[in-house]
User: Fold this.
Amino acid sequence: MLEHFETFETLLEELEGFPFDLNRLPALRHFKIQEQSSFEDNVSLLALLNQLLSTSTPSSGIETLGIDITWDGFDVGCGKDLFLSDVGWSTLDELLTSEKFVSLRKVVLSLGLKMTEKKFLESERTLTLPYVNALFPKFTASHRTLEIHLEVSMML
Assistant:
């Protein structure tokens, strides 16, 4: 559904006044969200993601959630800043372990960092990976499956 909109913001603008509720889709078992964003928009992106997913209730049957985010253009050493808990990841972790997602068994995070300088790709991956691996501690502790893919590559 999101592929028809340029950003989460345009999706939410289209839905303004329309009570978007994931529970209106009772047969929905697998839900994937894809977004390409800039480094500067990370906080608002996570706030919008939390807002969209908070429309769920315990009767939601979502079993698998895919979150696919690619960030374009950032400075070397800043990738870790995308994954600090206070930018919205801890709120998302709380939401996914709440009673709203009792059927949720698996989260697949596909995260892409697009850089401008090839020589820093591996060092950025090494610096960022520990922060990515620390995402969703409550979800992981609940013995559900968290699958993480991190790709650090060149911007085209």
The first helix runs from residue 8 to 15. The longest strand covers residues 106-115. The radius of gyration is 16 Å.
